[in-house]
Amino acid sequence: MLRKIRLTVAIFFFVLITLLFLDFTGTLHGWFDWMAKIQFLPALLALNVGVVIA
């Protein structure tokens, strides 16, 4: 049960972050910019230089 919940939440975040990067008008940034920030912080803390540069 916990695996299904985790998978559902992961897919939900994946879709919304993908839409955030594909949104050229900027309308979704007002709603979902916090998700990009919380995804950036773990990449920075893990010192993934390639991810941070990309």
Brief overview:
The protein has 54 residues and is an all-alpha fold.
Structure report:
This protein has 54 residues and is an all-alpha fold. Helix content is 80%, strand content 0%. The protein has three helices and no strands. It has helices at residues 2-22, 29-45, 49-53. The mean pLDDT is 76.
Q: Give the biggest sheet.
A: none
Q: CA-to-CA gap between the ends?
A: 35 Å
Report the mean per-residue pLDDT as an integer.
76
Rounded Rg: 13 Å
Query: How would you sum up the global shape?
Result: flat
List keywords for this structure.
54 residues; flat
Please give the structural blueprint:
Elements: H1 2-22, H2 29-45, H3 49-53
Helix pairs in contact: 1-2
